[in-house]
Amino acid sequence: MGDSMEMMGTAIGGYAPDFELPGVDGSVHHLARYLQKFRAVGVVFMCNHCPYVKLYLNRLKQLQTEFEPQGFTLIGINPNDATQFPEDGLEQMKTFATHQQLNFPYLRDETQDVANSFGALKTPHVFLLNQDGVLCYSGCIDDQPDRPEAAQIHFFRDAIVQVLSGALVAPSSTEPIGCSIKWRT
Questions:
Q1: Which pLDDT value is given to residue 4?
Q2: Cβ–Cβ under 8 Å, residues 61 and 30
Q3: What percent of the chain has pLDDT over 90?
Q4: pLDDT, position 56
Q5: DSSP annotation of 110
Q6: Pairing between strand 40-45 and 72-78?
Q7: From the centroid of its chain, how far is CA 165?
Q8: Model's pTM, two decimal places?
Q9: Which of 28, 77, 150, 162 is deepest in the core (most CB within 10 A)?
């Protein structure tokens, strides 16, 4: 019963799907190139208007700042349907990235193929890959969306530390906390 989430996308221990997506910086971003450069890659499915994304944005930026020197990068991907939610189009993403001073790439998954192949369910939903492109963690960022200072368990942060040190990630999956991805109808 607990495996239903993994059935829809990449299973823990499986290889993450490669992707090439346009970013707010005007260039195309290829996952394989990030895996060549970094020892750990975090993929966060996010969008511009989700209240949970806004609550977690500073924590995501802090993780990028803290772990980038150790060989980690975060990649934000917006899969929401911009037909129903025009505020999630690429131009609006550029404004959002500038306004929020994002310190990691922010990419547009217009076809929603990448979100589907990862098995993303929410915004934010994080996935952590090791240098081989193997999925080591999937789920929530921590146990406190509303109050960062009250967080007891920093799932994503702990997973990053474990991957960078070559340790097994435990727990390897948690339930993502956030808004549902806005799928195309």
A1: 37
A2: no
A3: 93
A4: 97
A5: T
A6: parallel
A7: 20
A8: 0.94
A9: 77
Q: CA 118 to CA 109: how far, in whole Å? A: 12
CA distances from 138 to 11, 53, 75, 96, 149 (A): 9, 16, 14, 25, 22
Mean pLDDT score across all residues of the chain: 94
Q: In the structure encoding, which two tokens stand for residue 99, read together?
A: 């306004």
Rounded mean pLDDT of 120-128? 98
**Measured distance CA(120)–CA(127) in Å, rounded:** 9
Question: What's the pLDDT score for residue 9?
Answer: 86
CA distances for 61 relative to 75, 84, 182, angstroms: 11, 28, 24
CB 136 within 8 A of CB 172: yes
Give helix 155-164 / helix 51-67 axis angle, nearest 10°.
30
Give the integer Cα–Cα distance in Å for 130 and 119.
18
Phi first, then psi, for residue 10 (nearest 5°) are: -80, 130
On whether the CB atoms of residues 104 and 58 are closer than 8 A, the answer is no
pLDDT of residue 3: 38
Task: Determine the Cα–Cα distance for residues 33 and 27; give it in Å rounded to an integer.
Answer: 13
Place of tokens 């040190």: 165
CA-based end-to-end distance of the chain: 27
In 3-state terms, what secondary structure has residue 116? Answer: helix
Radius of gyration of the CA atoms of the chain, in A: 15
Judge whether 45 and 12 are in contact, CB under 8 Å: no
3-state secondary structure of 62: helix
